[in-house]
Amino acid sequence: MSIVEHLGELRKRIIYVLVVLVLGLVVGLVCANPIYQYLISVDSAKDFELHAFSFWDGIGMYMKIAMIVSLVATIPFTAYQLWAFVSPGLREVERKAALRYVPYVFLLFLAGLAFGYYVVFPMALGFTTQVTESMGLKETYGISQYFSFLFTLVVPVALLFELPIIVMFLTKLRILNPLRLRKMRKVAYFALVFIAIVITPPDFISDFLVTIPLLVLYEFSVFLSSIVYRKQLAADAAVEARYRFPAEPQ
């Protein structure tokens, strides 16, 4: 394919993703109210009396919930479209192996959402509440502020949980390998610590409790990359042995 044909193929894949994103938003708007009722009924929210400070707060909250629902469906579909775009350049074995990663994109995103909502968010909310009470302030929160705070914490954590799959996919494409990942460990650690500090409240405990899982995810990604890399080396050795001519007798 020429460069223009590649760009046309990429454009088609992007349109598919946008269509699924819009359909996901429609489904999300239908499911927004039940999800909202659940989110305000849990222990972390039921003690708050949420207010609407503008006419658009309710609609904005529904749109944010719809966007999360849409992301749940769009992210694995995007992974599949990415695979479909690069698969013509892969061998048959690599195509089948890469396609198996797509369901795990969905599962890891859900795991990240669960970790962000049930671990990171209550921890961050408890810290901010304690600071507010220690200052003698009365808590009066708008629905927009509450859900913005919730999604700002949960969504980045869920996206970071995709790291192992991304590393395995790039290793399969021979863009990354465990040797390169180990060499860039210091830079990766710094980036992950920086991300953890940005998305958590400014206290050491919150930063620590979020940083540790991120570092574990990185090391787990290196481990998965090494498994894929060893299989690649074994396959390359087998191919080389198959086409190696026997040495001529002396």
Automatic annotation (TrEMBL):
Membrane-spanning intervals of the chain: 14-39, 59-80, 101-125, 145-167, 187-205, 211-229
What subcellular locations does the record give? Cell membrane; Membrane
Q: Do you know which InterPro entries this protein is assigned to?
A: Sec-indep_translocase_CS, TatC
Q: Which UniProt keywords apply?
A: Cell membrane, Membrane, Protein transport, Translocation, Transmembrane, Transmembrane helix, Transport
PROSITE patterns tied to this protein: TATC (PS01218)
Membrane topology, as annotated, equals: Multi-pass membrane protein
Which Gene Ontology BP terms does the record give?
intracellular protein transmembrane transport; protein transport by the Tat complex
| Gene Ontology molecular function, alphabetical | proton motive force dependent protein transmembrane transporter activity
Q: Might you report a single GO cellular component term?
A: TAT protein transport complex
Q: What is its main location?
A: membrane
What is known about what this protein does?
Part of the twin-arginine translocation (Tat) system that transports large folded proteins containing a characteristic twin-arginine motif in their signal peptide across membranes.
Family per similarity comment:
Belongs to the TatC family.
Which HAMAP family does the UniProt record give?
TatC (MF_00902)
What quaternary structure, including any partners, is listed in this protein's UniProt entry? Forms a complex with TatA.
Q: What is this protein called?
A: Sec-independent protein translocase protein TatC
The organism of origin for this protein: Paenibacillus rhizosphaerae
